[in-house]
Predict the structure.
Amino acid sequence: MGLSGMTTWMGMLLAGPLLLAGIPGPVPALKSAGALVLDQRTGEALLAKHAEAVVPIASLTKLMTALVVLEARQDLNARLTVEPGDVDQIRHSRSHLPVGTTLTRRELLELALLASENRAAHALGRNYPGGMAGCVAAMNAKARSLGLQQSRFMDTSGLHGGNMASAWDLAKILDAASKVPEIRHASTLEELEVADGRWRRTFPNTNALVRGGSWDIGVSKTGFIDEAGPCLAMQAQVAGRPLLMVFLDAPGRFSRLGDAARVRQWLGEGTPRPARPTLVKAKGRVSRAKAPRALRVAKDAPSRAKGRKAAAGKAAKGKAVNEKAMKAKASKGKPVKSGRSTRRRH
């Protein structure tokens, strides 16, 4: 069927997760509020959860930014400078790109994708033909050309809460991005070291699955703003098939990664996360080798208190015996040596 034929039955997906393909095993319980997993070759939806909802997409916006910047065929080796206007005035987010930094357009594109650098994305839009307005207009035109009638874009970084799309829309953007070598390369770099003469810094990929090395990922992009929650969009090879995976509004920044791992396991690749250590009893006590520290402390507290009490009693008894002996020696006129050492402690 391909991705172009998906939209005719999108309206049927009103709740989730829904199992849309005959894959054995229980449907994974995804934590993300919205999700979509597609077979990229056939367009078959394997799993969908509120995939039709149009929601804020945060920095997943940068995939569309990269598409239009590269389609404009601007010189990737041209050097661009981060200016005060590139500083985030919406959320006042931090950046590791100081104002005055000069890098190539290629480096800014790579930083926008792998490190989700907002100043890099803004500088790319500002230096687009027609400036920021021209770039945003191109992004919305590209969305229409891809058949994304409900998507809209307001800026190049994703900081604006008005950047909206559904999981279905994002799957089409992912599909288009996966066909662009520069996006595949930049978004899956584990890290990138850049320098502008004044400083040198290494930027890690914001997707820990890319850095982990156990996934075959073709395109990756993370995102987060308050309105969108933690998001993740990936094209990856799983169990021998290319998948488009979108996870939106996860309850925590690790939940989106966990959802990807659950899907991978469900499809027969990868292993589940190790379970929490079980408690093993040995002679009525919790084994220290297996029990979590908090449980060990609580479980062993009575025995430690009993031991301290016994030790205190023994010490008191010994002190009494010692005092009795000293008094006996004193009554016989023998010199009594103090039990305290005068030797200096080092």
